[in-house]
Prior knowledge:
Elements (H helix, E strand, L loop, with lengths): L1 H29 L2 H12 L1 H28 L6 H28 L4
Helix pairs in contact: 1-2, 1-3, 3-4
Amino acid sequence: xxxxxxxxxxxxxxxxxxxxxxxxxxxxxxxxxxxxxxxxxxxxxxxxxxxxxxxxxxxxxxxxxxxxxxxxxxxxxxxxxxxxxxxxxxxxxxxxxxxxxxxxxxxxxxx
Length: 111
């Protein structure tokens, strides 16, 4: 049940915060350099990075939960233990994928 609620919550976060941020980024790219500089300054601020990490987690959580729901739509994974295992896997998987992506982004080698 908690994963189903998280699926809805992450969908809302991606819809409002994610699309708002994406729209701001696209307008900043299309506009003058000072607008893009402002966006970059906000996005690289520690609070901006926390928001981006949160949106990344929301994306991965929503993706994995959607895959879980797709599996359930086929009539599989309704056994209680399998359902609980998949629910936990979506949470753990989203945290691991978010950590791996941000570790690569922040500490990966740059050419």
